[in-house]
Amino acid sequence: MAIRLPGIASSKKVPKGHFAVYVGENQKRFVIPVSYLNQPLFQDLLGLSEDEFGYSHPTGGLRILCDEDMFLNVTSRLQ
User: Fold this and answer.
1) Are 41 and 78 in contact (CB under 8 A)?
2) Which domain holds residue 36?
3) Inside any domain, residue 13
4) Read out DSSP for 25-56?
């Protein structure tokens, strides 16, 4: 599940074993476990985003091309 950690979500700090992604039109920041990178469903989201944005973001996170509800739905299925 994607998490928004108070203080962490709004700062540049990311806990060890996690990374930041920016989701949706408003680029809402989520901090998620790196283990999601091994999940085929999450890899599909990354593939869509790579086609549109590449893998760089000015603040160091990844931008995910989907709306927040879809992202939360996908990440809620990952464990």
Assistant:
1) yes
2) 18-78
3) no
4) TTTEEEEEEGGGGG-HHHHHHHHHHHHHH-S-
pLDDT tens column, 25-67: 898 999 999 999 999 999 888 887 777 666 655 666 788 888 8
The domain tally of the chain equals 1
Predicted model pTM: 0.73
In a domain, 7, yes or no: no
- For residues 41 and 59, what is the distance between their CA atoms, to the nearest angstrom? 24
Cα 51 from Cα 77, distance rounded (Å): 24
3-state SS, residue 75: helix
| Residue 62 belongs to some domain of the structure | yes
Write phi, then psi, for 11 (nearest 5 degrees): -105, 180
